[in-house]
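Researcher: Next entry in the queue.
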Amino acid sequence: MAYRLNELGYSYDALEPVIDKETMELHHSKHHQTYVNNLNKAIEGLDLGSQTIEEVLKNLDQIPADRRQAVRNHGGGHANHVLFWESMKPGGATAPEGELALAMDAAFGSFAKFKTLFENAGSSRFGSGWAWLVLDKGELKVISTPNQDSPLSDGAVPLLGNDVWEHAYYLKYQNRRGDYLKAWWDVVNWDVVAERFAAAK
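Model: Structure for this entry, 201 residues:
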């Protein structure tokens, strides 16, 4: 089988002014597409059946050792970006509601404290990587991963992820990663995060 680039549910300019059109177009049509292309090269000739990329990342030991790092890198890049695009929408809710909100308050003390932890996870990641809200063995946690590593490969379920590779923000924010992290809350799709949480419990 071959994986493919998913379509966005919104236009490239829909997330302005938080994320500009040029960044979105380059990020989706060039960077993400490259991960998909390289993933398909890495799995060429392997019999993975109809596994989703999430299933593959949960069980990287099934990949031959000489291809495993490429699948981890490019498969993670593909899965992470699919989740990233789906985690955003124009004019989204400003905060989680319902069961997710209650669970986050219990885990982090308040939504404001969660946001601080999440922004710190993103700003303190040296080099390239991701900030995540994950469900790990039934517990909500904020973590950071390097490069395109997916929390799935460590047994956690990603609920929300923000890309802190420079290509995600540099055209608009230059070296001000912290400003990007703070602005990003305005486009988070809390409805889909709540759906992931409900499915993962």
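Model: Helices lie at 21-42, 53-58, 65-86, 98-108, 111-123, 170-173, 177-184, 190-200.
Researcher: Noted, moving on.
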